[in-house]
Design brief:
Helix content: 25-40%
Largest sheet: 6 strands, parallel
CATH architecture of the largest domain: 3-Layer(aba) Sandwich
Oligomer: single chain
EC number: 2.3.1.286
CATH class of the largest domain: Alpha Beta
Shape: globular
Protein name: protein acetyllysine N-acetyltransferase
Mean pLDDT: 92
Number of helices: 9
Low-confidence stretches: 20-31
Keywords: NAD, Transferase
Structural class: alpha/beta
Distance between the termini: 17 Å
Pfam families: SIR2
Amino acid sequence: MATLYITGAGVSAQSGIPTFRGDEGFWTIGSKNYTPQEMATRSMYIEHPLEFLTWYYHRFVCYRNHGPNDVHRWLADKQLITQNIDGLDGKAGNENYISIHGRIDEVTVFHSQGDKVSRTLAPWAEIDEAHLSDSLLSLFRIGKNGPQLNESLKPYVLLFDEYYTDLYQINVAQERMLNADRIVFMGTSFSVNITQMALDIAREKSIPVEIVDPDPAHILYHNVTVHRMTAQRYIEYIK
């Protein structure tokens, strides 16, 4: 059976990385002046690049050295699409997983969406935290006129006002969904487009769905099995 796993922030919680919608979640805590939904946008990066990069650095990049947990290691040989940008599935040894929303350890050149660009390692090791603002602007090649197309760098992360492109392997992700005999969602709130896309395909092709979450979202589909448990307990349960 070709099983496709689609994971969300709940899978990385055991590694000490906040989920998105809890009390300390990424989308609960914003900056001093903006909500997270305002911060995590392409518009904010263009108009207020320093505030965007500083927020991104403190809210995401600070977790770049965290390690994978048992669930990531269990998923290492599985067909996987993750919504997480922490890169822990790669650290666990999964060489073919899709990080559909990007990765904190990579950047791209700042480009028009849909343009073909390469991903490169992010320059976080070169950051001088004693002079964080100047360091961020310098390393991301941002001058007084803000980010420049095909010149400045941009974190490899899909923002709220951006759309899925081949850069984020959307075509490969859809192919995996279409070819799956079973789709297992682990630790996700079903509040992003990729999970809805997978559910639509599952309904259309009558693909069985499983949900692994201690507080699962309710979805309208008849062929669903719900496991009200953490991903850690689930992998112990099915062994």
